[in-house]
Amino acid sequence: MTQTHERTTAPVLGDPVVPGGECPEVASLVAPYLRIIRSALPPVEAERFFTHALDAHEEERRRAGALQLGFSAYLWDGLGETWGGSLAHASAWEAMQAIRHLVRKAPRADLAAYLRLGLRHVRELGAPAPGRAPVPVGA
């Protein structure tokens, strides 16, 4: 069994797992979902996923107060037609929905901060486990 030395909780505000000013309790709940995305997708695809998630979040914020489709629709559109055909994609998508749900429940939490953290981890750390071929949905 391979052990990881990556932190699973964020006990103090100076912790690198906690985006600036965020509460450690939220960070400790969001961190496993960030790792799911990073482990489910190859590094290049995970980076693209986090980048599109940041774009979707900004689009949703930009349109706040107006009639709009919302984060998930903007993310799906940004990812394009090739997205969604594998179990890895489904796993990353559901992890992102969980992150968003948790952050929305915490009034002071900042989704963009967690998305930037996920993007930074992908760029700095790459994939935590050896890459695996995507398994098509329904296989």
How does this model look, in words?
The protein is an all-alpha fold and 139 residues long. Helix content is 58%, strand content 0%. The chain has helices at 24-40, 43-62, 71-79, 87-105, 111-125. It is globular. It starts with 23 loop residues before the first helix and ends in a 14-residue tail after the last helix. Residues 1-15 have low confidence and may be disordered.
Task: For the structure shown, list the relevant keywords.
single chain, 139 residues, mainly alpha
Gist of the model:
This protein has helices spanning 24-40, 43-62, 71-79, 87-105, 111-125. By secondary structure, it is mainly α.
Query: What is the N-to-C order of secondary-structure elements (H for helix, E for strand)?
Result: HHHHH
The oligomerization state is single chain
| Radius of gyration, taken over Cα atoms and rounded to an integer in Å | 15 Å
Poorly predicted spans: 1-15
Percentage of residues in helical conformation: 55-70%
Distance between the termini: 27 Å
Q: Approximately what portion of the residues adopt beta-strand conformation?
A: under 5%
Overall mean pLDDT stands at 80
Number of strands: 0
Strand and helix map with partners:
Blueprint: H1 24-40, H2 43-62, H3 71-79, H4 87-105, H5 111-125
Helix pairs in contact: 1-4, 1-5, 2-3, 2-5
